[in-house]
């Protein structure tokens, strides 16, 4: 993975109403006091990851034209965006990418970055539902990794809306429809019917050893 490769991939993900930011190895930036307070017991690797993510987020906010502000961490480790903004942050192998938009336009945003390497075979059943496993094709481990990534993005986009934790079988991905759907899995029982019927848009780009997945739920 390289910073340049990620920036090229992010350029393909751009769409109206969304702004992206990228940060890479050897970059750093000061944290707001509210952010630094989230790291009092964090290890060095986590501090670096957190700082890169906030740097990417600030670049996304600046690109959006939004006022910069602290993005502290909730007890569940999700980022708390400034009022009026929604967004998502992802990290992988020393790289970070963030997406941001205005809450008047978007209900939720989710982004995920992964190396384009195959998923471990013994994890495939945990990620893919039976009907999804049937569609993985010849490149099964890589296809499963792509499925993992897009489900991660969809989960992150919907979580601020539902506040419900669930596993991978609670979502079914339809690549043809460009959407993820809630299933009848018991873990979805806590989601209100109106939310459970909501379609979660998905998009994904793969190039130069990277997988970038995005879910953007319009208001």
Automatic annotation (TrEMBL):
Keywords for the protein's UniProt record, in alphabetical order: Enterobactin biosynthesis, Transferase
GO MF entry, a single one: transferase activity
Keyword flag Transferase: yes
4'-phosphopantetheinyl transferase N-terminal domain sequence ranges: 35-100
Pathway: Siderophore biosynthesis; enterobactin biosynthesis
Domain 4'-phosphopantetheinyl transferase, residue spans: 108-178
Record field: catalytic activity: apo-[peptidyl-carrier protein] + CoA = holo-[peptidyl-carrier protein] + adenosine 3',5'-bisphosphate + H(+); apo-[aryl-carrier protein] + CoA = holo-[aryl-carrier protein] + adenosine 3',5'-bisphosphate + H(+)
Pfam families: 4PPT_N, ACPS
Quaternary structure and partners: EntB, EntD, EntE, and EntF form a multienzyme complex called enterobactin synthase.
Role description: Involved in the biosynthesis of the siderophore enterobactin (enterochelin), which is a macrocyclic trimeric lactone of N-(2,3-dihydroxybenzoyl)-serine. The serine trilactone serves as a scaffolding for the three catechol functionalities that provide hexadentate coordination for the tightly ligated iron(2+) atoms.
Record family assignment: Belongs to the P-Pant transferase superfamily. EntD family.
PANTHER family associated with the record: ENTEROBACTIN SYNTHASE COMPONENT D (PTHR38096:SF1)
Protein's name according to its UniProt entry: Enterobactin synthase component D
Species per Swiss-Prot/TrEMBL record: Thalassococcus lentus
Organism classification: Bacteria, Pseudomonadati, Pseudomonadota, Alphaproteobacteria, Rhodobacterales
């Amino acid at each position: 993975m390289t910073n340049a490769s990620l920036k090229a991939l992010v350029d393909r993900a751009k769409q109206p109403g969304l702004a992206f930011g990228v940060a890479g190895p050897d970059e750093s930036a000061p944290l707001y006091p509210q952010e630094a307070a989230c790291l009092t017991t964090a290890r060095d690797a986590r501090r670096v990851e957190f700082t890169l993510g906030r740097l990417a987020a600030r670049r996304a906010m600046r690109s959006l034209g939004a006022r910069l502000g602290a993005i502290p961490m909730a007890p569940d480790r999700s980022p708390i965006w400034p009022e009026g903004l929604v967004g998502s942050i992802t990290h992988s192998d020393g790289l970070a990418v963030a997406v941001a938009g205005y809450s008047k336009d978007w209900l939720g945003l989710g982004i995920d970055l992964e190396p384009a390497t195959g998923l471990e075979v013994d994890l495939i059943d945990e990620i893919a539902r039976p009907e999804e496993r049937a569609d993985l094709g010849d490149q099964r481990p890589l296809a499963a990794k792509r499925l993992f990534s897009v489900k991660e993005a969809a989960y992150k986009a919907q979580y601020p809306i539902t506040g419900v934790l669930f596993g991978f079988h609670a979502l079914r991905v339809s690549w043809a429809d460009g959407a993820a759907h809630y299933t009848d899995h018991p873990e979805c029982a806590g989601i209100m019917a109106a939310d459970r019927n909501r379609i979660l848009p998905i998009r994904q780009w793969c190039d130069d050893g990277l997988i970038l997945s995005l879910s953007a739920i319009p208001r």
